[in-house]
């Protein structure tokens, strides 16, 4: 769309091709978030794939496209806010894909028990020793139905939304949003003549999911039915004991997990489903040791459920019980230990001090980092403060200040726009290779207004804090001239505004390979480096980091060699803030090379600190 059309807001149709990059595919939870976002625009938004065009505000319709990893679809936006919708949804979708982590399989560590064991698939770690109880559903019907069917549907949606809002910090909460969006789809908008019609519709939806990759969503539909019926006075609840127990269930619905949490539940054995089902995700989030075992399971007065090894023992020997108890204690201690020690400093076995910093995007993640024991902020990705609309200098200053107040050292990266990151309100020239184009510092030096405003805001915020050291870091620097020019712009602003720069230092992201060969010259200019392994790997191997099929290997020996060369060639403080910093496999290697500062996302900090203590 040209500038004129943009200025006069001419109704138009915009098509953009998007690719599913998550190995989970475009599945229910991200779809629900996408739908929730798409509803915000005054535009007709559709998705086109496999010769089908479906509404972007209907979860089941998008699900029916069965978009798997590497599939592309067209995002089509028409109407008044078409451009805005296109730009914002594009970023939103790419972020959804980036953040949609593959559900990690639990690696079972075999344990030799002397009694007969049944083997299962582990879905939530832990060890339970308790009697086996089979799930029983109790039906209770209130005499007078308290609501109409429409009211019951609306109440269920409201309840799910508030459940989602209240638990937003937990990833598992997305399940409630997903269920709410399923129930908000147009199929449930029809005027049902009676409850049976509603039930038939649910059955039909379930039938369509049978034998598809989305089969595990059947439980969500069944769950919705139960939740709606509950508001009509028909309660179907699990009958659960008041003593500690291991529950064996043929079918456990996501909403049952909350009920389990109110009882002394010790473990769960599911007899159907898989580890990616919503029930499994909620069991993991509630830390209830769980296995999937298909075969029938007899009652037992004292069973061992060892989800760490995948064993269920219905008639354990005394020795087995003793062994399981010892394992249980060691497991709980290992979990508690890392969390308990999260605020402590971190040393390797040889006594090397290692700093574990946090990568954050805003005040919320800064607070999370504080609670997780971060030793400071190693990377504030400021793009997120700019992602919806352009903040004023005052707004930016206020945001930085809130974060500066929380930590003694904060590394603020100036805007890293370009590549896969764009700003919806900022027209940028189309480039055929955006990752090799006007990105990071190149953009800031071309479009200096935003850059200058940002530097000013950082400087103004720095004036308001006493003890915080502020590191300003420029992204995508590939030669010394860029650094010299960027720093000179900052210094000029600070001189004009009489901002004392004693607390401020200047450095670069080391993420363009050319820098490796100019470290001696850079050392004379910069105060610090932070290695962006995500981009460094991308540029070392010429593999686009968001490429749907080509894989960038963050553990590659070639990258390791580059990191060795870097640390032995510089005298300046250096940290690693890319994904590599959290890689279990590379940790020992990095510490041996001499890296002493790692920056990772907040929730990984307690565990990383504990792992370092064993290297
Ligand atoms: C990196 O490139 O490794 C990095 C930390 O920055 P980003 O992922 O934001 O590009
Ligand atoms: Mg980068």
UniProtKB/TrEMBL annotation:
Pfam families: PEP-utilizers (PF00391), PEP-utilizers_C (PF02896), PTS-HPr (PF00381). Its EC number is 2.7.3.9. Transmembrane segments: none annotated. Its cofactor is Mg(2+). InterPro entries: HPr-like (IPR000032), HPr-like_sf (IPR035895), PEP-util_enz_mobile_dom (IPR008279), PEP-utilizing_PTS_enzyme (IPR050499), PEP_util_C (IPR000121), Phosphohistidine_dom_sf (IPR036637), PtsI_HPr-bd_sf (IPR036618), Pyrv/PenolPyrv_kinase-like_dom (IPR015813). GO terms for molecular function: kinase activity; metal ion binding; phosphoenolpyruvate-protein phosphotransferase activity. It comes from the Bacteria. Residues 13-105 form the HPr domain. GO terms for biological process: phosphoenolpyruvate-dependent sugar phosphotransferase system. Keywords: Kinase, Magnesium, Metal-binding, Pyruvate, Transferase. The keyword Cell membrane does not apply. PROSITE patterns: PTS_HPR_DOM (PS51350). Signal peptide: none annotated. Belongs to the PEP-utilizing enzyme family. This is Phosphoenolpyruvate-protein phosphotransferase of PTS system (EC). It comes from uncultured Sulfurovum sp. The lineage of its organism: Bacteria, Pseudomonadati, Campylobacterota, Epsilonproteobacteria, Campylobacterales.
